[in-house]
Amino acid sequence: MTDPYFQRLFAQRIGGARYGKGTEIYKFEKIKRAKRKALAEHPERQLIDFGIGENDEMAPESVRRVMAREISRPENRGYADNGIAEYREAVARFMAREFGVALDPDKEINHCIGTKTALAMLPAAFIDPGDVTLMTVPGYPVAGTHTRYYGGEVYPLPLLPANGFFPDLDSIPAEVRRRAKLLVINYPNSPTGQVATREFYRRVIDFALKHQVVVVQDAAHLMLSYGDPPLSFLQVPGAREVGVEVHSMSKGWHMIGWRLGWVCGQERIVRALADVKDNSDSGQFIAIQKAAAAALDDAEIPKQVRAKYHRRLVKLVEVLNRCGFQARMPGGTYFLYVPAPKGVRGGPAFASAEEASQYLIAEHSISTVPWDDAGAFLRLSVTYEAPDETAEDALMRQTEERLKKIRLAF
Ligand SMILES: Cc1ncc(COP(=O)(O)O)c(C=O)c1O
After folding, report:
1. Atom of ligand 1 lying closest to residue 54 CA
2. φ and ψ at 197, to 5 degrees?
């Protein structure tokens, strides 16, 4: 097949003239394909799916009822632009109630169509060619992708067990620090499950002031914090002089497909995001913002979501540890991040987490997500579908039985 005339017109940032011709398959597509194959080849074997990174439940009925009402109101029909006051005010009440953080809803809060879009837009406000975004890895790559789109560079900060899954800010070379404009962190961290401490945030603020970088703290999983109450970056003195925190309605309220979040913190940075956003989208549907405002005013919702995933994590930690894994309760998120097995006793060896993950899905219909960016780890999510606790327990029994039979080596 000959190329269309525009093949040579594709921008370098998406591959230039080679766009669409590569054979590289991205990790999550590989996992989807492996799942389909396992289901087709072994219909008798139930797929045990720890590979999904999405809540398994609908938004609470109370929220859906508000949505049902608001969707039929004519005043909600139009462009929402940079968002409605009702949602911003609900966010301000939420931030005050949960974290004791007082924010001006008109200046220090702006909605976004999910945190993904805010992370995609923030580099537009800061990154020129040659600038650097400092980013923890493994992690959510969106801010890095857009940094590169603008001609910037990403400097990875590995999250390792040895440094408690915190970035080693002192290790950044002076030449990189000089060019750095953004520091993107994410706590509770996906996938490692680490939660931030005040002390860590204080170090981040000192670093930002000393080296003049803007901090973007991705709080997508914040309401899924276990043990200590959730900690917002903005609770720490100085945070709002150096950056913003990006929040999501997705995980903590089971509203993942509704596409709503917010950016809050330093007024000028919130404004810059709002300006880029205003040139990118026309705001989330007002009915959704109103339903989310109701969700934010109900303190019970995140508590229930948290209790559910905490319960499931406790069960999976026990099962995995009985099967040879080294699993610990995470500080937050609905993920377990465990060292990948090195092989099977008397069977194949795995050179990477990816190989271990492929083996588990292909041979045993157990889906996981591999991470090889900073050591070989598997991520197991407890967002599997199980209608009640009896079903959860049955799934855990099956998981244990199946994993024990494999005789994994670590
Ligand atoms: C760390 C992290 N940040 C951001 C997001 C995006 O969330 P949202 O649904 O708010 O766009 C995710 C989603 O998986 C995530 O894991």
Report:
1. 14
2. -115, 165
Low-confidence stretches of the chain (pLDDT < 70) are none
Rounded to an integer, what distance in angstroms lies between the CA atom of residue 256 and that of residue 253? 8
Question: Cβ(220) to ligand 1 under 6 A?
Answer: yes
Residues near 319 by beta carbon (within 8 Å), at least 6 away in sequence: 396, 399, 400, 403
Q: What pLDDT is stored for residue 379 in this prediction?
A: 98
CA of 347 to the centre of ligand 1 (A): 37
Distance from residue 208's CA to the centre of ligand 1 (Å):
24
Locate 314 and state its tokens. Answer: 């406790």
The DSSP H or E segment spanning 339 is strand 335-339
Cα–Cα distances (Å) from 352 to 158, 244, 359, 370, 381, in that order, read 17, 36, 11, 8, 19
- Say if ligand 1 is within 6 A of residue 284 CB: no
* Ligand 1, atom 6, residue with closest C-alpha: 116
Q: Measured from the CB, is residue 140 less than 6 Å from ligand 1?
A: yes
Summarize pLDDT for 83-97 with one digit per residue, the tens: 999 999 999 999 999
Share of the chain above pLDDT 70, in %: 100
